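User: Predict the complex.
Assistant: Input components as received:
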Amino acid sequence: MDMRIAVIDDSATRAGVIVDGLHEAGLPDVRIFTERGGMVQTLEMFAPDVILIDMANPQRDELEEMLAVSRALARPIAMFVDQSDAEAMDAAIDAGVSAYVVDGFAKARIKPVLELAIRRYNAFARLRAELDEAKSALAERKSVDAAKALLMKKRGVSEPEAYALLRKTAMDKGRKLVDIADALLTAERLVGDV
Amino acid sequence: MSDALRIGFLPLVDAALPILAHELGYAEDEGLALALLKDMSWASVADRLLYGHSDAAHLVAPLAIATTLGLGRPAVPIAVPFVLGLNGNAITMRADLAAQLTDPGMPGNVVQIGKRLKTLIDSGARLRFGVVHRYSSHNYMLRYWLLGCGIDPNKDVEIVTVAPPFAADALASGEVDGICVGEPWNSVAVDRGVGVIVAVTAQIWRRGVEKVLGVKAERLAAEPELYDRLLRALWRAGEAFIDQARHDQIAAILARPDYLDGSHGLIRGAISDQILFAQGLARVHVPDFMFQHREAANFPWVSQAAWLYAQMAAAGHVTADAADYLSAQAVFRPDVYRRALRPLGVPLPGASAKLEGGISVPVGVGTVQGRLILGSDRFFDGRQFDPDAFDAYLAELSH
């Protein structure tokens, strides 16, 4: 018997990462649901054995209502097959993924799917954190460069001198370099044309 | 060194007390360092609580009972030692439908509004209503009102779950004809011009139990002193909440991105009972719209849990069962409330249950400490609920 899996995720990118993993693991029967409209009907028609949904998705309550009343779906239950999986539960909540599994589905077959989802969610979160970090580092550098240029123009100093001035001010005030740069740019925007 | 406690919540105005306990320093006074964990569904709030990723949670009251009884999840006993607030919800409908039921802009007579709704349904209108959760006070309050107006909520209308952030969209797209949801989401729908408030839940039950503090029963038993301190901090937060002079400050705190991430103006309207019923009209003061603290509103009356179980049975969500009825009532823990708050010298009701809907004029009630006067707790249809007459009540409710 094949395992039919529904992946519900606001992020189409993350859903894609999960589905790729499932395909690689030899599970071809997977469908992604990203749109809220009509989800209930299409989900009922798809009749999945396992549903994976991100914990931050507000649609979880709508989904659980559907699972409680649907006659089309065999009765799936929330999260893991039984409560003995406390460790796996911890990992799932930390990763931000939740799962619904049709009652009676062999536990041995479900577990690898959930572990795979947890790994992929974590990997995705790491990727996003690295991306955010890279973005903010870039933004910081832009601020500092703009502040240096401003000092060079207004005080007629060289670039190393402008940088030293910013760094000294930051050290004296116990603030980050980028904070001083931002403050300078804000002040310039406020009073620069006076 | 303070003790850390994590509290799960949904971004709703009635998550105010745990947020204020933290922000206004009452938790710190009790040696507690609160961390507020925001989620976007009750399912995630419940999962965090059940699997120990939070130590307590802001919960819709019936969900605490449903979780204890094992509805939709493995059964885990939940304890409710403190009620976070009464009412604060409203029923908002499509503007054209609302105009057929009431004078938009003003609180109307919910008996008359219900009669007109029944006439529409009898003449063939097929209506769909959204509630925020299957096991929510919103669902049971809406059903109670419909039933009391001669409309069978299981047959004459369709009731579906719509997550609060989607409520206004669902009204706008015609996916639902009405919603019963908490604030600020009614105000958001009104503000966008996609809905008109036709009733607030305080008009259906003047003292309707709404959100509660849920704790795993075994955690509460293992660390009573820790949770007692939390209850004292929450009680003081309640005191601050009803201080009108602080409403601007409170609205500003709640509106922050890490909490409700919403509009200061809409939130301020809700916490001061100033409700905008329809777009473009003036706000109307609705007494007791949110009832978060006065008259020992935070006391977990066992009869409130009993009433909820009766509504769950009437809805067909549970099959009425004597043992389950006792388990449901045991979720509410007035004994813990008394133990925790005694040192504050605040009024503590002597009884643990009361005749719900039995008070029509303010009346003094017996206490083990302090003086307590309870105002009207009437239901819109004048029905009363005696927890000791469950079978007769249920038979009467379901005709």
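The longest helix of chain B spans residues 224-241.
Let me know if you want any component modeled separately.
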